[in-house]
Write a structure and sequence with these properties.
alpha+beta; 5-stranded mixed beta sheet; 166 residues
Length: 166
Amino acid sequence: MGQAPLFDRDELVASLRRDGVHVPSSAQVGWFGNTPDLASRLGELVRSGVKTATASLLWAWEAEDAPAPRAGDVEIVVDWAGRYLALIETTHVRIVPFRDVEAAFAHDEGEGDRSLDHWRRVHWLYFSAECRALGLRPTEDMPVVCQRFRLVHASPRASGSPNQAS
């Protein structure tokens, strides 16, 4: 898993506000994936509007004693270097067993060929690694947080902050 991205939340918020982007004081900073490459690839899918959903393992949220996402949550999406990519708002959250994730949700995640088969393959591997780290065994019943979101604002440049020169 490694280290998390480094970022200065206050500077990200200030930079966005200077550019006229409304950022609620409750906005959190986050990224997608657990590696620099994955954070960049998935973050770019969010920035471009292709990715409008994401899945996470409820057990991971519980292990961190953190609340699962909720409708109305706002997040500043960054890449692994902490550069701003997008501002998103969660619109819907549903927790379902792994086996019950639907094809439409897999499509909206925007990854690979956007099929349910692809989604199941890559997420089984990802969640299995998370389960091992938590001392749990992955099952078809493991609870998956299916989160849908809307793109509120996107960085005008791939992997760049709003004020970063090209």
